Give the backbone structure.
Amino acid sequence: MLVSEFWRLGFLTVSRRLGTYLPEPEEIGKFKVDVIGRQKEKYAIGITLSKEDIFDSNLIEKINYLSSRKTRFSEKPILLLIGVPDIYFKQVKELLLNVDEKFRRNIKLTRILEEDFESRRSIRHTQQMIFS
């Protein structure tokens, strides 16, 4: 999960899509983002790529735009964290070779394992109901 990767890197989530207590992040340019995090003076943007997003023709444009973002006043680069399903990880890594070299330093790829979701669901559904 992308949020746990943010926490592992030391970022606090400022806004989160589909979150309960945090507000939804605003669109950056014309692109939707999933998570925005902050660590002291550093910021990070997180997006999760689905199968449809990976085969979208605008993916390189989206990654170029989001990885080129800088903070307003201090002009520090903002980290772009991209969550990719494990099956498409190599394919997205090859796509990133088309991204401009100076923006590629601001990108961090992370694998999203779908097995975690299934194992949690199976544990939850196999337990007996105590109350009905």
